[in-house]
Amino acid sequence: MGPLAGVKILEFAGIGPGPFCCMLLADLGAHVLRIDRVEPSGLGLNKPPQYDLLLRGRKSIKLDLKSPVGVERALTLVARADASVEGFRPGVMERLGLGPDVCLAHNPRLVYGRMTGWGQSGPLAQAAGHDLNYIAVAGALAAFGRRGGLPAPPLNLVGDFAGALYLALGILAAVLEARTSGQGQVVDAAMVETASHMLTMFHGLRAAGDWTLERGSNVIDSGAFFYDCFECADGKLVSVAAIEPKFFRELLNGLDLDPATFPAQSDGERAREARALIAQRFRTRTRDEWCAAFVGIDACVAPVLTMEEAKQHPHMRARQAFLDVAGIAQPAPAPRFSRSVPDVPSPPEVGPPGEASALAGWLSAEQIADWTT
Questions:
Q1: Longest CA pairwise span in the chain (Å)
Q2: What was the pLDDT predicted at 372?
Q3: b/e string for 49-78 if b means 16 or more Cβ within 10 A?
Q4: Residue 282 and residue 286: Cα distance in Å, rounded?
Q5: Is 203 considered catalytic here?
Q6: The domain 219-314: what is its CATH number?
Q7: The domain defined by 8-198+343-372 carries CATH number 3.40.50.10540
Q8: Residue range(s) in the chain whose domain bears CATH number 3.40.50.10540
Q9: Which of 52, 82, 131, 160 is flagged as catalytic?
Q10: Is the pTM of this model over 0.90?
Q11: How many beta carbons lie within 10 A of that of residue 126, not counting itself?
Q12: Model confidence over 69-80: pLDDT tens digits?
């Protein structure tokens, strides 16, 4: 089930963006087989396997890729895959004998997906790093945070997981192209570049003189009093994004502030006064009281929810945005499809699976019997 049903992806186990990319593909119906290391790999953040939700939706086998037998078996699977995914430093797969040249020789139609922080080449290619480093060099980190403060790390959403989205997109684009050309290729997804690519609009704004480099001084980085978060009487927060004049008018009406006397939205000299008036007003009711007051009003006001609260929000519940998989609530696959609806993801594996079950659909029954005996 799912739009990617029949697409085979071979995953060389790693951490972070590689597993997230493969989770995305598995969520949409791809048949993903993960090759785990024989020795402990440090997957996850020291949590039991059932909580490593990035591993949902696929089965795994263990191969010793430092042995000739392990490499030979990996290449057997490569020959049957539409794409492979690896997230090691440049040169690691080549040293194992599983680099792109070898794999493409075994399967000329293979799409060889590579996920790294710095890319396969360049002065930093071999340097260690994590999400924060990649988005720092991309110019993205400097944009997060308030005026006069240090940059605020946006979790690892902008480097690791956004980079995984680019890798998934690149793999799918290359798989489609291979079905026409009959030739595979390498997809080099570097998080420093994918983070930079997401800044494309802001480079245009900067060139036009409509974006400053000082944090908290632009419309959508907390620099505008009509696009920010405000504390309510109970200490909880609401988000306000009333950029367009019609939404701004509705915001003032909902707050019972007179548009005739309130500072104009474009009046920079009275911006501090306007922010203080809005903040003072929001502090007179609880967050949920304000959200109830703004129901049906197009003022772009929404509660700032925790991850636990988000699961219970009426909109998220109505859209079944969260699923219970083996007793653990987690986000449902996205996006939605009207016809080729993906199955509910299977939970991450707990303990080693049977190899015969994992290899089904990749090898014949006779090959599986030879492999597992």
A1: 83
A2: 77
A3: ebebbbbbbbbbbbbebeeeebbebbbebb
A4: 8
A5: no
A6: 3.30.1540.10
A7: yes
A8: 8-198+343-372
A9: 160
A10: yes
A11: 10
A12: 999 999 999 999
